Amino acid sequence: MKKEKSPKRPLIYYYIIVVLCLMLINSLVVPWFAQRQVQLVDYNTFLDMTQQQQIGLVEVQEDQIVFTNKDNTAIYKTGRMEDPALVERLIDSGARFSQEIVEEMSPLTSLLLYWILPMLIFIGIGQWMSRRMLRKGGGGGMPFGLGKSGAKEYDKSSEGIRFADVAGEDEAKESLAEIVDYLHDPDKYKQIGAAMPKGVLLVGPPGTGKTMLAKAVAGEADVPFFAISGSAFVEMFVGMGASKVRDLFRQAKEKAPCIVFIDEIDAIGKKRDGQLGGNDEREQTLNQLLTEMDGFEGNSGIIVLAATNRPEALDPALTRPGRFDRRVPVELPDLKGREEILKVHARKIKVSDDVNFQQIARMASGASGAELANIVNEAALRAVRSGRGCVNQSDLEESIEVVIAGYQKKNAILTDQEKWTVAYHEIGHALVAAMQTQSAPVQKITIIPRTSGALGYTMQVEEGNKYLMTREEIENKIATYTGGRAAEEVAFGTISTGAANDIEQATKLARAMISRYGMSKAFDMVAMETVSGQYLGGEHSMACSMQTQAEIDHQVVELVKKQHEKAAQILLENREKLDQLAHYLYEKETITGAEFMEILRG
Ligand code: ADP
Ligand code: ZN
Question: Which of 188, 382, 389, 589 is deepest in the core (most CB within 10 A)?
Fold first, then answer.
């Protein structure tokens, strides 16, 4: 059962509207317009013209006489006088009598008025609409251009972005450098018969600089850059995604060597699942893309770059050799990468000399390139707000918290009891973490409420580049998550809603241990869960029987419970330190990692 082809409908509507408007114009606007063409003359002129046999058509109406000149190029009008011999004189002068003189103008004039003019108007409106859509959607498309388009639609400049502007991401740049070299000198490759990959897929989380990298390749190679986003194919070109793809590649071939960049390719390149009523439109677009990629020779000088943060959702046909056969991971930046990104963006603003970028990078662990750019900008805004001429260290530090946790909520008033609870809760996390690892667990803890809703905020210490975690480390982490709630229990004997996020995190870790990392005795090395969308937080789907699910749930509970007890135990054993640290945090509202360790050791 195929779904009705809805995409074509809007075009039909458009044409119906055009025809209706034409009729409206013909019945209202044109007569009015034609009336305006009629020149009013006095009766004497009329008589003179009659005498000189200069009248072509004439229409004698109740109170006026409408007439044309000999070659019907102009219409005149004059008032009617009492003149009995008029008709005879007119006949003698060779004038022809007519009923609808206004409509009987010369065929040329009427053709112009009735058809050419309205058409021009509509073409004008169409052009205007297409230009508006272009501006709105970036990609753009003519509503009745039937899949044709000007080069400008896709041709974006690469804005002079070079590899040097993309900080970090050295591995990605290395893989792309070869493509730049190829675009510089395709002949070198042709001589040997080496073919460049036709398509390169940039995969990674949002905001890591995939678009920037694609632009940088075009900038370095100094070739045209055609950019369009996958969702634009789906949204903007309803009913003509396929022809848009064809058109895009036609233009690219004309301008080769060049880069074609398709952002969010997963919007069109999703797995074709053959579901009932599946997305016809998208499949046609994808098929066309595949055909085009097969269509051009390996050495035609067109390189298709595509970006996605959902590589696992792509249709296998897209990723097979000969299409997007090279995959370049663009990961979240590591410490060094973050420092470089901060420096790149700090070049655009005034920064005081004492700023320690490495420390900022350390504090902003887990931030993407886009977030780091945002942090620098927030810092500049903060400097302006406080009337300083350049950005200093504290601006940057504060803006990390702003970007990650939201602005300080100046007027949020916690009750005293709430403030104590938050202080104990946050210290609970930190203390449990510190006692397990014997090192400073946090950069900083504050209990100033944030606009994001967080009542406190803990800045974790950069863990370095860690790729593996042992079972003990994960268990310790779960214990740390439960430490906040445990501290509330130990200190107040009651619990609050402040642990909702901790509970979520702890559960996620515990579940992963059992169903994905094979860290439970019962299930050995069997995967009970599959993950998709690893760059977007990850979606899990269970791949086991109902009984097993129940058993997993049971084990997750056991695991978290055990760590919760361990955390409570740690806090009980260090009750004195807990009180001391919580009091300090309550008083100061902010505690740094160094102060924390000092009190703990002291
Ligand atoms: P993506 O396409 O991966 O979602 P973008 O390339 O659009 O990310 O990056 C968004 C913004 O983030 C860029 O305009 C740039 O300011 C900043 N950015 C991201 N990564 C980097 C990087 N590696 N170096 C410098 N700036 C970066
Ligand atoms: Zn917590």
Answer: 382
